[in-house]
Design brief:
The chain is 31% helix and 23% strand. By secondary structure, the chain is of the alpha/beta class. Helix 2 packs across helix 3. It is globular, with a radius of gyration of 18 Å. The N and C termini lie far apart (53 Å). The protein binds hypoxanthine (HPA).
């Protein structure tokens, strides 16, 4: 009984190169261009998707071997099109461990976008500010991350076609892309920092004690996404920029409970400026 369970698990974990190719082949049959930049839009940052020109929209549920968004604020659509004259593929809605997905499954979107030909990846997310110099509505370019919970999305048999078994993550968040994004901040009216993102699995927000621990460890912000995608990108050598929107002060910083409404509301107040900032970044990359 136990061994049958383990055997079944081993099969489900053993994604082959062909597994990812099947999704990519399907998507190639829907669009007649190669996207240059892949973009993942986080919670409530979806409106950027409306800026995509000549969009070709594909529902996640129609893509073979893909995953399905279960979070209300995530649209669950892959959008191909043009932003600032560049060909992009944009995920409006992403997948998280807290939805029940295994870490190994979370490699799927980035690997499929890599097979579609993207040269650079932009990840966005909503995050809680741990750094007390930050304010809700601020933006943080992720310079590094801390992940002490959950295992690696690259666990399991290694697919050499994507990258080596052991790989460097000391330049996970590509410094050159960060420099460009920092330069683009000027004139946007946004306060843009560089800082460390700490991953928590969620779906509960963190405890005040966890936030104090995160701060002592050197975190500036906390969130429930992005690192699995960034690690997948590092494995296949994809330059990556990660941009966090501080939707709230993290738990215990203010004397009030954290609510998803607060997260949504801040995201809504900044989404227009954030979309403009993203467009500027895409143009400059
Ligand atoms: N913690 C984790 N994830 C988040 C937060 C937070 O405070 N805010 C938005 N996403």
């Amino acid at each position: 009984m136990t061994s049958a369970f383990h055997f079944r698990r081993m099969i489900t974990m053993a994604y082959t190169y062909e597994y990812f190719q099947k999704s990519a082949d399907f998507l190639r049959s829907k669009v007649d261009f190669t996207p240059e930049i892949g973009i993942v839009l986080g919670s409530c940052l979806g409106p950027f998707a409306q800026k995509i020109e000549n969009p070709v929209v594909v529902d996640y549920k129609d893509i073979p071997n893909f995953l399905i968004s279960t979070v209300a604020s995530h649209a669950g659509k892959l959008i191909f099109g043009t932003v600032a004259g560049k060909k992009v593929v944009c995920m409006s809605g992403r997948f998280h461990s807290y939805e029940g997905y295994d870490f190994e499954q979370l490699v799927i979107p980035v690997r499929v976008m890599k097979l579609l030909g993207i040269q650079k990846l932009i990840l966005t997310n909503a995050a809680g500010a741990v750094n007390t110099d930050y304010r809700p509505g601020d933006v943080m370019l992720v310079s590094d991350h801390i992940k002490l919970t959950g295992h690696s999305p690259l666990r399991g048999p290694n697919l050499e076609e994507f990258g080596p078994r052991f790989f460097d993550v000391s330049r996970l968040y590509t410094p050159e892309l960060r420099k460009i994004a920092l330069e683009c901040a000027e004139g946007t009216g946004l306060r843009v920092h560089e800082g460390v993102y700490m991953f928590f699995t969620g779906p509960q927000f963190e405890t005040p004690a966890e936030i104090r621990a995160a701060r002592m460890l050197g975190a500036d912000a906390v969130g429930m996404s992005t690192v699995t995608e960034a690690l997948t990108a590092a494995h296949c050598g994809l330059p990556t920029l990660a941009v966090s929107v501080m939707t709230n002060m993290a738990a215990g910083v203010l004397d009030q409970p954290l609510t998803n409404e607060e997260v949504d509301e801040t995201a809504r107040t900044i989404e227009h400026r954030f979309s403009q900032y993203m467009t500027k970044i895409v143009d400059a990359l």
